[in-house]
């Protein structure tokens, strides 16, 4: 098949899991004898407008125009309340419109290229997908990785909610990343018969604990002031409400009551940073919580997993959560939020002979602490759980399996 993706993120523009997902998916689609074209953001209009990425994927990054002042002429109160962030919305619309125009008018109508299917990712890409479907009649997949309702914890922009809803009605198929997300989309009015579930994945050859040496792990721990006889807890993610990191910090005093030789490393950036740091001071645990508020390379993130004793991901909203899959692939016992729309609970088996981690209530600091203490109190069992976690990744969450499932969904509609 000749596949077109509309995605706000693609290397070198990576903001979160979506960029990682598409990078892996597109490469595997090529390996399976498909042709892939991607339309993505040209950050600050500084990147080349076209490249043959890795010599195999056609990537177009049309330069956008700043149309924010023009859009404000007819913007409603919702838009105007965005303030300085209104330009972001204007850039999204500009990217979608220009990308769709280039595909339709230049690549198809002028150059005569042909495509089989369009896969548009989240509200950031669905507008371009809808334009292409209308102009060319191509089957449209709406790949929903999260929703505005979930991201904003019930608040958010009604305009974005409307874009997502309309995308669900116009698309031929809605692909989403977990059964929890499927339930959410149905409650939001997405057509039941259009929704297909395809989990995300991870590269177990890259996320392989056997490829990290002990010297590097000890060096990382020393950099954070964590000795060999101390436990290292690890959180990775954006420092925002839906990730539950504030409740994790509140859980630390309960953990320290039983395991005083424990430190928490928080890796991520977000608008909660100063509130979290203030919280550690008020709780008297400033020396037990270490913040690393910057982007790090993938190889360094892998090293963090390897160096930790327990990974804690107490999200209150997580449609899938690739960080959990990464942790599992690194054979780490993982404690995850398991309430509401949360794909973590579909990844982690919380009991039985294939247990791969612990489910906790992410709204309850004591329950988060309970899950952490279950890991710390029995190191042999923790190691066994970690091995089970990696085996589950090998059995279920490889990119090969994810890509084949995605292509099977495409074939329903081509």
Task: Spell out the key features of this protein.
414 residues, alpha/beta, Rossmann fold, 2 domains, 8-stranded mixed β-sheet, 6-stranded parallel β-sheet, 17 helices, 46% helix, globular
CATH topology of the largest domain: Rossmann fold
Q: Name the quaternary structure.
A: single chain
- Beta-strand portion reads 15-25%
Strand order of the largest sheet: 3-4-2-1-5-6-7-8
Q: How many structural domains does the protein architecture include?
A: 2
How large, in whole angstroms, is the Cα Rg? 22 Å
Residue runs with pLDDT of under 50 for 5 or more positions: none
- By secondary-structure content and strand pairing, the structural class works out as alpha/beta
- CATH architecture descriptor text of the largest domain: 3-Layer(aba) Sandwich
- First-residue to last-residue Cα separation: 9 Å
The shape is globular
User: Mind describing the biggest β-sheet?
Assistant: 8 strands, mixed
Write the CATH homologous superfamily of the largest domain: Glycogen Phosphorylase B
Q: What's the number of helices?
A: 17
Give a structural overview.
The chain is α/β, with parallel strands linked by helices and 414 residues long. The protein folds into two domains: 2-201 and 399-413, Rossmann fold; 209-396, Rossmann fold, CATH 3.40.50. It is 46% helix and 15% strand. It contains 17 helices and 14 strands. The protein has helices at residues 17-31, 68-71, 77-80, 86-110, 122-136, 148-151, 158-170, 179-187, 214-223, 245-258, 273-282, 298-307, 322-329, 344-347, 365-376, 379-396, 399-413; strands at residues 2-6, 35-39, 50-53, 57-60, 117-121, 140-144, 173-176, 195-197, 231-236, 262-267, 289-292, 310-313, 334-337, 357-360. The protein has an eight-stranded mixed β-sheet with strand order 3-4-2-1-5-6-7-8, sandwiched between helices. Strands 11-10-9-12-13-14 form a six-stranded parallel β-sheet, with helices on both faces. Helix 10 (245-258) runs parallel beside helix 11 (273-282). The radius of gyration is 22 Å and the shape is globular. The model has no long low-confidence stretch (mean pLDDT 95).
